[in-house]
Amino acid sequence: MAGWDLLLTDARIATLAGDSPDYGEISDGAIAIADGSIAWLGPKGAQPAGKPRKTRSLGGQWVTPALIDCHTHLVFAGERSQEFEQRLEGASYEEIAKAGGGILSTVRATRAASAEELFDAALPRVQALAAEGVATIEIKSGYGLDVTNELKMLEVARRLGESTDLTIRTTLLAAHTVPPEFEGNADDYIDLIGNEMLPEVSKRGLADAVDAYCESIAFSAPQIAKLFRQAIDFDLPVKLHADQLSDGGGAELAAYFNALSADHLEYASATGVEAMAKAGAVAVLLPGAFLTLGETQRPPIDALRTNGVPIAVASDCNPGTSPICSLRSAMILASRLFGLTPLECLAGTTREAARALGLSHDRGTLEVGKRADIAIWNISHPRELAYWIGTPQLADLIIGGHTTRP
Ligand code: DI6
Ligand code: FE
After folding, report:
1. Which helix (H) or strand (E) element contains residue 169?
2. Which of 39, 43, 205, 213 is spaced 20 to 30 A from 103 at the CA atom?
3. CA-based nearest residue to 26, from 50, 1, 56, 47
4. Whether 130 and 220 share a structural domain
């Protein structure tokens, strides 16, 4: 076909296409790219005639869809290593939060930081993810907790997308915890989010979704239901931090509102999982938080599998519970801590992560018509991506048809 910008040949392709329980392998294939999208892919020999502007032989290297980190809080100021030490000495996450630390400690630092400072702190985190093959990142607000500072966080996240080749999807997580100004008055804060933040965020197109933290130390199901109704009125899809530290009916709540995803889920009930399956909500597993908090109750992996709930894996990069700026580490932890197969880890950071962001139509698998977001690896099988720890294996990252690494 005429008009190809780039033809990758001699590739071993893990397409992840379809929902079949394999890598969708094409063992000796080629991928043609035109206008930033995949124009053709298939086995050597089946290729239609045409003269690409550029041809690159991969010499048998593996390619997969570029990775997608579908749950991060990577825009923040400060760090919380002191709380980490306190927890190692026996203090619980909830105790620290109730004493004014936890999320509120990062809120103080983030409010005090300028947009410029937040951007400068976040950019290396984005670059660290990209260095491991990530081309799409979701970033949540939630450390501002007032109109000015939530908008500031979302603007910084948008700017990260504009200043790099990556796609950044932004999420309003104003319902992360109750800010000090509203202590004991969570209902009024929920009203502030619905009446002031949502209209402004919507008017300025600053968020692609709305998230909330459903937990005894944060917001109740009725409070979140009220917020979600308003989000849906603004045409914003919802997602939920659900059942992380206790069963708060979060999985059910997410399903009821047709959420894109319910995330964490360590304590999700059987009925919650069934409801998610019916609603088509993705389960986003966050093993970095599980590890850092020393949790022992694993998410209901078998129930998710038997009910056919799509499983994604994300870094949850944040300074409190998951100081992990590495999606490969999340894959590795998901295999070790939750028993996910290497295929589930890779599907969970490509196809299912795209689904969790509502982006399945244009990324997450290698198929004709999807974006040419492609990772090229120095590996002998894609299962190695959940196997090696601390081993750089990315050879190249192509985003929108363009090589981003020298
Ligand atoms: N769950 C998490 O893992 C993060 N937020 C949340 O709702 C933790 C955020 C933090 O501790 O700063
Ligand atoms: Fe989180």
Report:
1. strand 167-175
2. 205
3. 47
4. yes
How far apart, in whole angstroms, are the C-alpha atoms of residue 81 and residue 70? 24
CA of 324 to the centre of ligand 2 (A): 12
Nearest to 345 by CA among 360, 329, 361: 329
Q: Say how far apart CA 72 and CA 137 lie, in whole Å.
A: 7
- What CATH number is given to the structural domain containing 213? 3.20.20.140
Task: Please name the residues in contact with 332: beta carbons below 8 A apart, sequence gap of 6 or more.
Answer: 345, 386, 387, 388, 389
Shared domain for 171 and 79, answered yes or no, is yes
Candidate of 82, 108, 239, 241 to mutate for ligand 1, largest count of ligand atoms within 8 Å of Cβ: 241
User: What pLDDT does residue 100 have?
Assistant: 87
Average pLDDT, the chain: 96
Q: Report the predicted TM-score, pTM, of the whole model to 2 decimal places.
A: 0.98
Is the CB of 320 within 6 Å of ligand 1? yes
CA of 152 to the centre of ligand 2 (A): 19
CATH number at residue 28: 2.30.40.10
93 C-alpha to center of ligand 1: Å?
A: 10
Strand partners, 214: 219, 242
Reported as a single tens digit per residue, the pLDDT across 337-349 is 999 999 999 999 9
- Structural domain including 177 reads 67-356
Q: What is the mean pLDDT of residues 206-224?
A: 96
377 strand-pairing partners: 62, 394
Average pLDDT of 303-320? 98
Rounded mean pLDDT, 196-215: 98
Identify whether residues 170 and 235 lie together within a single domain. Answer: yes
Check whether residue 395 and residue 320 sit in a common domain: no
| Tally of domains in the chain | 2
Q: Are residues 187 and 124 in the same domain?
A: yes
Q: Using a 6 Å cutoff on CB, does residue 142 contact ligand 1? A: no
C-beta 153 within 6 A of ligand 1:
no
Looking at the structure, tell me whether residues 96 and 222 fall in a common domain. yes
